[in-house]
Design brief:
Elements: H1 8-13, H2 19-23, E1 30-31, E2 34-42, E3 60-62, E4 71-79, E5 85-94, E6 99-101, E7 107-109, E8 114-117, H3 162-168, H4 171-176, E9 180-185, E10 188-193, E11 220-224, H5 242-252
Parallel strand pairs: 3-8
Antiparallel strand pairs: 1-2, 2-4, 2-11, 4-8, 5-6, 5-7, 5-9, 9-10
């Protein structure tokens, strides 16, 4: 995904808002000073890849109580705007089986805080079971296939690098099954596509990774949503000023609305 960049001057002049930018999926993680990450938390088995920060940590806001048994996808929203925000209408859609999760009420994330949206009760957001490949990835996208994807993700499946997915012939299938995260902040709607397939763990049930030399745990550290992921997490999102882009698309009636 090529980062979408939009400056305030460009928005006002109309020069920066091309048709291509208007219809592109909003899969970059940076919306002004709001950064979005995806991860997976499994505390049923030991692993070195558990997402950090997590529930109960300093400056973490969440509706999920600590102390639960965890086998769950997770979305993290970082608020660096300088003031509190209220995230509402939070939903996650899985195209593979047309499932929508809307487990969460409005969440206030204070200035400098991290908001985590994950299971609200044990196993009610077990999203590793929502991949198109079922219990195992195709051989061409196996996590221990070091022809290209094992080195970059150690997850395999649709979490592989885009070049490796293309070489295996799965580009269209992976794009069509990417999970979609939507939410509102005030009157602005946001949509982010998990093109790295972290929430559905590469499109297969990652608990079976032990068969490929893994640890039998599904945990994946925080990855910037829309990036090509690594199991141990990746770095700071590139600025893309999607708050301005969101405002421009809303004005044109082109912004993607959350799915019913």
């Amino acid at each position: 995904m090529i980062p979408i960049r939009l400056t305030l001057a460009g928005l006002l002049s109309g020069a920066a808002l091309t048709l291509t930018a208007a219809i592109a999926p909003l899969s970059q993680a940076h919306a002004s000073s709001i950064d979005v990450y995806v991860g997976y938390a499994d505390n049923l088995r030991a692993s070195g890849f558990f997402p950090t920060p997590w529930l109960g940590g300093a400056n973490v806001a969440s509706q999920t109580p600590t102390g639960q048994s965890l086998d769950t996808g997770a979305i993290r929203v970082d608020n660096a705007t300088g003031s509190a925000i209220i995230v509402s209408n939070f939903q996650v859609y899985f195209p593979n089986n047309a499932s929508t999760f809307s487990l969460w009420s409005n969440l206030t994330i204070g200035a400098g805080q991290v908001g985590i949206f994950t299971q609200t009760g044990s196993y009610n957001f077990d999203t590793s079971d929502f991949g198109q490949f079922g219990g195992a990835p195709p051989l061409a996208l196996a996590p221990n296939n070091y022809g290209g994807n094992g080195n970059t993700s150690a997850i395999g499946g649709c979490a592989s690098s885009s070049a490796f997915i293309a070489a295996a012939g799965y580009t269209a299938a992976c794009a069509a099954t990417s999970p979609v995260i939507t939410f509102d902040i005030g009157t602005t709607a946001y949509s982010f596509t998990d093109t790295g397939h972290i929430l559905n763990t590469g499109g297969w049930d990652f608990v079976n990774n032990g068969g490929y030399g893994g640890d039998g745990n599904e945990s994946i550290n925080w990855n910037v949503v829309g990036s090509e992921p690594v199991r141990g997490g990746n770095g700071v999102p590139e600025p893309a000023s999607l708050a301005l882009l969101g405002a421009g698309l809303a004005g044109l009636g082109l912004i993607r609305r959350r799915r019913a």
